[in-house]
Amino acid sequence: MDPMTGVLPDKDTSFAFQRAAQSKGHECYHCLLPDLRVEDGRVVARARTVKVTDLAPYFAHGEKEEIHLDQVDAIFIRKDPPFDSAYLYATLVLELVRDKTIIVNDPRGLRDANEKLYTLHFAKHMPKTIVTSQEDRIMAFVDSVGGVGVIKPLDGAGGSNVLKLEK
């Protein structure tokens, strides 16, 4: 998961998942991508317990522990884009516990169903769309849709770097 300091308790689904699990008596752990490793064929995380509250600072971490991920009840992959090489490697590592532990946000699905490109499978339900890095194609596309277009870089997180083109 991303660092807890970036979690928005009133908006972030990750916080809601932690709150719900905690209310049912589950212990929650948190780790970052660099905290994952494979040792002796087993996936291990250097993780810390995390307790969430409704009052600032909204969470508290415990001490780091070594946890074999084939021994936990569930793993929630809650990492925001960008989908860089560290993210890719983490999904490949977590793939090793696929049949031993429930994984929410399946690593294979995260790789195969890119959040920005997967919608292209449903093109008949979408506005006219182009995916390209070719500037001339982008400008021709903007002309074809009446002089207004939106550019969303595939490697941008959230709404960063979104451009509105008007002619």
Which terms summarize this structure?
167 residues; alpha+beta; four-stranded antiparallel sheet; two-stranded parallel sheet; 4 helices
Topology:
Layout: H1 13-23, E1 29-30, E2 36-39, E3 42-52, E4 59-68, E5 74-76, H2 85-94, E6 102-104, H3 107-112, H4 135-144, E7 148-151, E8 163-166
Parallel strand pairs: 5-6
Antiparallel strand pairs: 1-3, 2-3, 3-4, 7-8
Mean pLDDT: 89
Report low-confidence residues grouped into runs of 5 or more: none
Based on CA inertia axes, which overall geometry fits? elongated
| Quaternary organisation | single chain
Q: What is the overall number of helices?
A: 4
Nearest-angstrom radius of gyration?
Answer: 20 Å
What gap, in angstroms, lies between the N and C termini? 41 Å
Biggest sheet descriptor: 4 strands, antiparallel
- Strand runs, count: 8
Q: Assess the beta-strand content as a share of residues.
A: 15-25%
- SSE string, helices as H and strands as E: HEEEEEHEHHEE
The percent of residues in helical segments reads: 10-25%
Helix/strand class: alpha+beta
Model description:
The protein contains four helices and eight strands. With 167 residues, it is an alpha+beta fold. Strands 1, 2, 3 and 4 form a four-stranded antiparallel beta sheet that branches. Strands 5-6 form a two-stranded parallel ribbon. Strands 7-8 form a two-stranded antiparallel ribbon. The longest helix has 11 residues.
